[in-house]
Structures are given as structure tokens and as C-alpha cells.
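lol ok so funny story. i was supposed to be doing the assay writeup but got distracted and ended up predicting the structure for this chain instead. priorities right. anyway since i did it might as well share w the group, maybe its usefull for someone
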Amino acid sequence: MPRMLDVSEDVRAEIGDEEAERLLAGENAPGSYDCTSCRTPGDSEQERTSTVLFVGEETAVLAFAHASCIPSQVVQVEEAQLQGAVQSITGGVAPAPVTVPPIVPGSPEQAVLGITSGLVLIQGELHPALVVEPTAPVVRPGSAGTTDEFLDLLVEQGFQATSDLESVPATLPGWSVLVAMGQLHSVLQPGTGGSGQVAWWQAHQPLQVTDGWRAAANKSHTVLVYAAPSGFIGQQPREDLLRDALEKAAANGRLVAAAMPLAGT
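and the output, tada:
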């Protein structure tokens, strides 16, 4: 029986058209499954289901998830960690790898986006947050200049300038934060031409988040994303120091923010 599967172009490229068509026809896809994100049962005959391909250096594992939890995509996993991913899919616990952020195109110094997770207290309630800061100025793609336009580029995408941390930022339509198997995988933005979501930031290796962060995210189903130019936040060892740095950046007009739905758990 045909399955209600979403097979992204990236997944199709990895598994091939023939295998993708067999999946869609129901030959190699299970009817019922445990969602690799929220770990609750799903049924690909009754509801939209994402194919998620975990790829190592030599092997790959295909898993399934509710389309409402995470989109179909390829998740890069180091070969040594692939068994941990398999254990997580089948009920085990995956190891906590180290994150290496990607290169930001357009930066004269090949900046990378550093992302820090933490809890931010707003009006007496703890909110899960991600703080984004490049390691060097980010110029506009295609520009020959050297002016840092990181915040301008984000404002053009819908982020809003924030002068303090006293209120929850507005939700940014079409964006989301992908957490799968208790690890941060990517920040997703709308694709061009109605092509679905694509990764704005993607971890080379998933970032482990704390139990408190994950619990707050599962409670609110929302993650607050703050961004500042290079040099305004830095590596802060404690959440109170991180908040102080955010407040200083906001007071200097160098902070933008957005709320994004949580994809996954």
C-alpha cells in the first residue's frame, strides 16, 4: 500500500530514485513506526511521515518521524557515533558529540556561527534560548565591502531589534528549531519558491542540550533565538553572565531576536 511519506531531495539523492520510489510505494517502508523525534507511535498509511537518513562515513540508517515533528532530511553522524544514533532510534541513549558550527558564506574572514543554548528568565518564566554570534564580521553576500551587515541581513529575514530582555520576541513565520533525539540539529528557514524549509544553521555534529532546556522547550514548544554581531557576547560560562552580555548588547542596539517553533523534542 502506498505510504504518506515525505522524501526530501537530499534524502533521495543519497538513497537513489529507485529506492525512494520503493519507499513511496510501501515496499520498504513500515506502516507503523516509533517517531525518531518524539518517540511516540506513527502510521505512514494514515499521516504524513518524514524519512530521516542518518549518514556516517561508510554506513547509513533510515528512520521515520512524524512530518509535524521534523522535516525529511539527511543528518550527518560520525561513523563512530552511528551506533549511538541507532541505539537512540531503537530506545537507547546517544552520546553527546561536540558541535562545529558551519562557515558563513560572504565573510572575508570565513566567520563561523557560534550557537550557545541557555535559559532566559522573562516575566518570571524560564524560556529556552539560543544565542547566535559569528566569530568575525559578516558582509553581505556578493559585496566587495567589509562592513559587518549580520544584523541587517537578519532584520531583512524578519528578526526584530530588541532593546531589552523583558518581553518574549515575536514569532518568525516559516522558521523553526530542530531538536531530534534530545540534541540540537539545526535552525530552519523558509526555502525559496515554496520549496519547504532549509537549514540556516546546521551543526556538523548535533549539540547536546541540558535536560532543563529541553523540558522548557517541550513545555512551550517555542525557542527564543537571539543574535548579536561578532564580539558582543563571547563565551560565557554561566547563564547569568550570558544574560548580562545579552542585556549589554541590547542596550547598545546590537541585538535582534525572534521566537521559533520547536520541531521535534
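The mean pLDDT is 78. Residues 5-89 form one domain.
back to the writeup now i swear
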